[in-house]
Amino acid sequence: MITMIKRKYILERLAAGPVVGDGSMMFTLEKRGYVSYEKWIPYAVLKFPDAVLQLHREFVRAGADVIQTASFYSTDDRLNLPGKDCNFTCKEINDAACKLARKAADENNCLVCGGISPTPSFELGKDEKVVAEEYAKQLRCYEENDVDFVMCELFDNIREVEICAKEMKKLNKPVAVSMTLGLMGDAEGVAVEECAVRMAKTGADIIGINCTFDPNTSLKVMSRIKSAIADLDPKPYLLCQPVGFLCPEVENNRLGYLTLPEYPLALDPRTLTRSDAHDFGRQAFELGINYIGGCCGFEPYHIRSIAQELQEERGIIPPVNDMAQPYGGSFFQQSIISSIEGGGRQTKEYWQNVNLGSGRPFNPPLAKPVDRKIDYTRT
Fold it and tell me: In the CATH scheme, what is the code of domain 10-324?
């Protein structure tokens, strides 16, 4: 029986069934003109709060169970890097981000997740205490705003995850840790399996991966993570939030989609269809992944597809169903879609199996990745 969502905390929800995360904030806000692709810092929570709130609300309406704070890359050491031209502090950004996320989340009893970003201090080799303090400053803000749980994300080094998780555990809230792991392992070549075990041994309640790779590659990595922790007791819940672009040619490149010549401003032709998002949600659930969402490029309609695909398993009707029903609903039976010559378009199977065209004559189906190194004094 499907019921409207009731207020439960993250571990209760994960125990009851799959949890749907939200999607892209920074990428989507950049497309809408509220974030600079040169800086990737969420000044928007202070300069354009209505824009941030609107995007949060779209994810809530799509069916997300969790709204994550728009506080990516907001550590003080990053804000103070040369060229950032930032007049705001970590506390100011995170505090505003928490309030906007909570306002949207409360409209459908969603949870608020406080996001922790990697810090340049780690990459620049500073003392562990200096690194830990950058996380602690973010966490103090999340404690003051009483977020429901915290998550470190986009970490590419298991050693940094371990430092961060130690600080996160001090908050006495559920903890999620997420890395940008591909098949090649972390930034220092530590294998997926070792990273998985070490993530679990931090005591995190949820472990997994986000960003950098597409759903297909990410599910391969998650299968290895699942196998690696199979004998652990207790086992953490699993999380997967890939990018919303198809990029199979970078599967064996540690930096993933960052090495595509189209990154970051011309990725649109690679965007997942709704059917791709439906398929990802189903495959992730069947693999045993408990927390399913998206990262860069995952728009609200992608999250809607996941929420609708898993609505029976979740026992929750996404708010968007009042206007946009799942595949096979009465809309598909009664709309003009069902009368288009050739038939079959009212079925889920049609949209899952349609052979897509790009509309771009002579364009190659794939691109050649470029050699790239990240300069952490600029990002």
Answer: 3.20.20.330
